[in-house]
């Protein structure tokens, strides 16, 4: 026997074992540019439903059941959106810095009447931003880690909203004007949203209705901003906001497409909106004092001619808001009469836009 033979055989056997192990281990698929996305990993499939237990990503081997946990989000259809991966990546790419990415020096020398009106608008918007910040933060720890991608996305939203608060505060105090008087109705309305304990309803109210309308408001403010600093804040914030709405609409599509009875789900949302009415004193989608401030900014002043111009633009904007809201509801999969009903209820219950 060739003295080397056993050695060769041994190596061949080892190679065979290595091949088998390699066959079972599917490595990550890198993108052409070398980056690694979660979709490049061989992760366990997203489960339809999970027990509220354990603290580990889906697919972990375990010999014993995990400890019970206070997760309330344990069903795929209530939380998943097919566009999650894309939204997570886009959110990371498009982060910005409120200290350095806004041309603050270009926000000086705004006419006093217009500057005061900007402060009224921003004070009210700042309050809405707290709703958009605190609500996802409240729910992140309630998401079962089987749906970690949702937590990753909502974490980007939390950072986005914190940045909006920072940017609005900076613009408010840029020229020494600062916060304006707080309206009671606005706070009651936001409280009604923050008290919501059901994620599907909260996401519908915040991501689809509230932030949907906020994207329209950002469009208007990009158009009427009196200075480049304000305009840039709105451009950047709009991009963030559009991602939040895209998640909300994507989540709602998943939710509605899993239902035999879409009207029954719609009814739950209608009830959530009706419940919010009890928190709200105001009955308009945009409080009158905010509409007035928008008109001053749009018309560039308080003179009758300027104000007339501004009021006309704001009236037109309210019509755009209502049309766009209904369009979003139809896109999410609601039938027309339900979309109309929900849209009308939102106008009555929001007292603010959120
Ligand atoms: Fe925001
Ligand atoms: Fe947002």
UniProtKB/TrEMBL annotation:
Organism superkingdom: Bacteria
Region annotation Disordered: where it falls in the sequence: 1-22
UniProt-listed InterPro entries: Ferritin-like_SF, RNR-like
Biased composition (Low complexity): 9-22
Gene Ontology MF terms in the entry: oxidoreductase activity
Name of the protein in its database record: Ferritin-like domain-containing protein
Organism this protein belongs to: Candidatus Segetimicrobium genomatis
Organism lineage: Bacteria, Bacillati, Candidatus Sysuimicrobiota, Candidatus Sysuimicrobiia, Candidatus Sysuimicrobiales
């Amino acid at each position: 026997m060739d003295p080397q033979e056993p050695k060769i055989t041994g190596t061949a056997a080892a190679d065979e074992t290595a091949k088998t192990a390699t066959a079972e281990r599917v490595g990550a698929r890198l993108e052409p540019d070398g980056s690694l996305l979660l979709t490049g990993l061989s992760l366990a499939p997203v489960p339809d439903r999970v027990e509220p237990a354990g603290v580990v990503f889906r697919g972990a081997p375990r010999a014993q059941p995990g400890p019970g946990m206070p997760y309330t989000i344990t069903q795929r259809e209530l939380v998943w959106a097919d566009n999650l991966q894309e939204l997570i990546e886009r959110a990371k790419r498009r982060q910005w810095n409120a200290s350095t990415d806004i041309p603050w020096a270009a926000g000086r020398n705004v006419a006093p009447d217009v500057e005061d009106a900007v402060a009224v608008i921003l004070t009210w918007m700042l309050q809405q931003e707290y709703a958009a910040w605190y609500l996802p933060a409240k729910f992140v720890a309630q998401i079962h880690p089987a749906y970690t991608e949702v937590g990753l996305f909502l974490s980007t939203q939390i950072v986005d909203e914190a940045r909006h608060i920072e940017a609005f505060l900076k613009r408010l105090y840029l020229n020494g004007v600062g916060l304006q008087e707080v309206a009671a109705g606005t706070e009651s309305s936001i409280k009604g949203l923050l008290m919501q304990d059901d994620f599907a309803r909260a996401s519908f109210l915040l991501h689809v209705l509230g932030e949907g309308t906020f994207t329209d408001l950002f469009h208007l403010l990009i158009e009427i901003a009196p200075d480049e600093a304000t305009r840039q804040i709105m451009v950047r914030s709009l991009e963030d906001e559009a991602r939040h709405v895209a998640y909300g609409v994507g989540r709602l599509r998943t939710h509605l497409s899993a239902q035999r009875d879409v009207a029954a789900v719609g009814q739950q949302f209608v009830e959530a909106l009706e419940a919010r009415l009890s928190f709200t004193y105001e009955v308009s989608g945009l409080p009158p004092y905010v509409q007035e401030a928008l008109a001053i900014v749009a018309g560039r002043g308080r003179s009758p001619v300027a104000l007339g111009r501004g009021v006309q633009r704001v009236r037109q904007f309210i019509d755009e808001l209502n049309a766009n809201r209904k369009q979003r509801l139809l896109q999410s999969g609601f039938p027309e009469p339900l979309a109309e009903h929900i849209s009308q209820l939102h106008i009555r219950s929001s007292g603010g836009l959120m």
